[in-house]
């Protein structure tokens, strides 16, 4: 048993029986006991807080865990990113008979376990012990915060291993049910986006492209391909294209960590088959890492010899492009499974990232809350997060360095910006 499992066991035993907790504590080191006591205090504080909200743990049927949280809209949205009404709409998609049979969440079997002979005869396997609503609820909780899922299962008497195994199946169903959330704009919509690009209208800008990383553990096979010498880490590289509102329009996932952004872009169909995605004169904007990518506009390299017009162009590109940096920070704040180190199979990392992108778009469409509002398009106002960025970097768009902006938006100091979004 690992030290983390012992910590969880000691915290739970301390709440149930002080004698058992003391016995286990005698087998651990002093620092571990101190950590356990701190976790106990935190857990007791959260239990008292949830008790005031009318939430009880371990009471009733743990298989109907969703129904215990649904009455409290605020707490439910804090745990899943969606309101109960939005959750029911998402559940209806997963239960839609029009979906492929393998992607439909099967209902809970009220008859309990089946005999082995009957399982083989019906080819049905073991029945589901949790209701579809509870399985979807636990999946969204894990996407939001993996640690919270462990605490929730421990306090509700659910087996964490069984819930985690079910998580991958629900993710596959969600990925199929929400695939329509990301779509490339048609010809008329691209023309509209190009006209709404502000000072960059004459360049035919229809979106912003950038890459984001998903850190992974050191892989056993092909380890040099995933290692990036500049970041000194192993990770996967994903490309994302969004419009001026921050709505995701296209994703290309699963590039090796050593692959440069420009090389990754040149290998995807947005570059190799431009005619299918762009009309004549239409292009994307990006940072200097995409230099030489043909239909991608990048800012001028900072030099003392830049003219006033070139500096003004750089300011406008940075002002337009910063929306995708906020998108990455917001997505990794809403779905914290992406912000840490990925400790599962690499073949599942791409699917989970694509699912989080689709759910991010669904969140924006359902709440009608985009990263940038309609007023920004007319130059009438800045969003709150843009004003905070300007204050952080001296009130001038030309001072926004992409590396510093990315580090700031993914730091704890910027979390309040995503809580308000």
In short:
It contains 20 helices and 6 strands.
Primary descriptors:
421 residues; alpha/beta; six-stranded mixed beta sheet; 6 strands; 51% helix
According to DSSP, the number of beta strands is 6
The DSSP helix count reads: 20
Could you say which structural class the secondary elements and strand pairing correspond to?
A: alpha/beta
What number is the mean pLDDT?
A: 77
Helix content: 40-55%
Shape: globular
Please outline the major beta sheet: 6 strands, mixed
Radius of gyration: 24 Å
Low-confidence residue ranges: 14-25, 50-60, 112-116, 118-122
Strand content: 5-15%
Order of helices and strands: HHHHHHHHHHHEHEEEHHEEHHHHHH
Question: Distance between the terminal alpha carbons, to the nearest Å?
Answer: 40 Å
Which secondary structure elements does this structure contain, and how are they paired or packed?
Blueprint: H1 3-16, H2 18-25, H3 30-52, H4 65-69, H5 73-80, H6 84-94, H7 116-122, H8 132-144, H9 146-156, H10 160-177, H11 187-195, E1 205-215, H12 223-226, E2 227-228, E3 233-242, E4 248-256, H13 261-266, H14 269-272, E5 283-285, E6 296-297, H15 308-334, H16 346-367, H17 374-377, H18 384-392, H19 402-409, H20 415-419
Parallel strand pairs: 1-5, 5-6
Antiparallel strand pairs: 1-3, 2-3, 3-4
Helix pairs in contact: 1-2, 1-3, 8-9, 8-10, 10-16, 15-19
